[in-house]
Records
---
Amino acid sequence: MRPIFTEDARPRSAARFTRTLTALIVVLAVLCGLFVGLGYLQGPKLSKGTVDTDAVVGQSGQQLRLFVNQVVAPVNAKQVTITPNVAHKVTSQGGLIAVQFDARLKYRTDYHVRVSGVTSVDRGTPSTLEYSFTTGSPNIYYLDRGSPNDRIMRARLDASPPTVVYSTRRIQDFALLEGALAVVTLSEHNESSLDLVSLSDGAVEHVALPNHVVIQKVDAAAGSSTFGFTLTSTGDSIRPPYSSTLFTLDLSGSHTIKPVVGLNGKPLLVLDWEYMPDGSSLLALTHDRSLFMVDPKTPGSVLPLGQFNELGSISRDGKIATVSDAFGLISLKLDNLRQERLVPSPFDEGEPYLGLTEYLPGGERVEKLLSIEPDGIRFASTVALDNGKKSQVLYRTPNDDGSIQNFSVSPNGQYVAVEVIPNVTTSMSDGYYYDSHSTSTTTVFVDIDSGNVVKSVEGFDLSW
């Protein structure tokens, strides 16, 4: 029988295999070239984007990171459009484009980012990349006094109900820190105690204080591990050990209180004080009406800023402080100490008296205005937005029956939280010897752009 495969058939079979393999390689090469060409013609594509929607409303300098399906040519800030508009910086490397936001973004807001003219490193067809995201709603904390216990509450600026974070008797004040609350309580003898409460597990740490003291003027910078307060000795001593003496405590350190010292190396005795927004330093108005900027962590870092009667507020960007002298309010630029006398812009309600004032990042001011009622006896209090040309109402109590006690602007300048007594004729004090409030005190949240009330809570002493 003849063999199926002869010696002559083997070379012909191998030749056919070689030709087939060669043809396949050519086809694959053509397809690869086609796909490369299509990619070149279509331009880069966005693979994904990442952004921390909570961090962007809490801190400036946060980033949106856009990942592209190929290495791209350098991208600059002019190629990036953000709606709503926010100042930004752009860096790019390889297939990554990073958009850094110069300011905090608005809460609960849809943002759309458009990057135009994006090309590969070979300068092929330009593409437009688009990415959208919605920012988060921040946690806000406030104090709600009641019976039998007072409560520190946490809420958001949406429809969700508030929750209890910590509850105990006679809470005098509190400060919000990174991962913890500093809680001041009053004893039956009106002396203060200080506790640190963990926000993760509720653990409580008692802080050692000198005997027979009261804590007042508690403050902390947002997201900081450091807070401060004043200590004043109780009793009737002619020379008390502490008299509005300023102290700080750093959670990253030994958890012991330390005095803030002035130019003479002695502890500062203050009428008022406040942390700078970034927490790096503080402003302190001393008993002799001297205003200083102090870095508590750097010995000798004490900068005199002038003589004033009162310290008002510090703008959220840390550039301007409002102070007052015998003639009224003054804006003080903290970089060059330039002063400007403040008066309210024209107001439909007549010529009001100017009270607490806080600058917004764009230069507008939120102001508390007092105007005389037609009966010539009562005052109507208003929170207004002053753009330098006109003051317009942001909030006033219904029928002008209430009183505006205080306000604070959100860190991103989007909302103003207004602390009000809804009706002064029916108001009753909670009876606290220090830091007393009306039992009906309510905090109302107003959108600054629209003037709409977005939420209200029963309580006060708000921390953003």
---
Amino acid sequence: MKVLLTGSFGNLGTSTLELLLKEGKHEVRCFDVKNPRNEGVENKLSALGKFDTVWGDITDSDICEKIVQDMDCILHLAAIIPPLSEQVPDLVKKVNIGGTKNLVEAAKKSEKNPKFFFTSSVTVHGVRHSTPPPRRADEEMEGTDYYTRSKVESELEIRERSGLKWTILRVGAAMPLDMLDRDMKSSLATSFGIPLEQRMEFVHPMDIATSVVNSIDAPTEGKILYGGGGANSQMTNREFQTRLLDAMGIGMLPDAAFRAPTDDSDFWYTDYMDTEETQKLLNFQNNSFDDYLSQFKQEFGWRGIFTRLFRPIVRMWMVSCSPFYKENKAKGM
């Protein structure tokens, strides 16, 4: 089967491409923006197998028509995600919403009528702190920022206006193993904005990759599915932060560094999910949070020695990135 993978060299795209190449069942066409980072990832993954790469901009409708030609399945993973999404709203509209529409229109013109798989997010439900979990497909969507509104609009475009054979996967907290390659200051500020009591469901990026790849042949047409790690991966942000920071050798940071909610509106938009149907169809939950932490420590490597040696300085710098610390300390936290 001929498969188009957008966002091929991002977090989830890289894991998905690795799995596609290891299986070797499909002809794969990759589509992503050309930059030094993506070129490096492409070069690294080329050692795993053969694939075709088309560099381009998803906001270009002409190139979208070209890459969709002859494809049997479109795996659409490309998107601008937080925290960058909240800094460049116009670009989010062009890429996340406009880019998805370009692919949909191109697929509609294709004689092959390809299956269209779209990675959305559990965050489309908005803040549901007072609503008992898990989140389910029959619940309403509520966009609360540029990112979630782009996912809501893209879902509506695919589900209600495309006429395609679509599948939507709402992904949970799929944390990359290479977190230190990100904009650390922005990432930390976002992280501190999530209350410690926040519910979240972790999912290993390779498990999402498994669900994406398995969807190619699975009977998922017309389904909204949920990509979470399952009951053993459901936790509060406090547990998540504590275990991750311990894995770095830093240790849990003071509560005052995190947002202290005064009402439900101060909570974030992650939550536990109903993944029962997704697991039955896609058999994807293979890695635990413990597995992720073990792999993260390996990826973290020599940095762990540095963080342990300079732990007080590292902690001080991280806390300085919190937009809440000074105010919370002034309140006696």
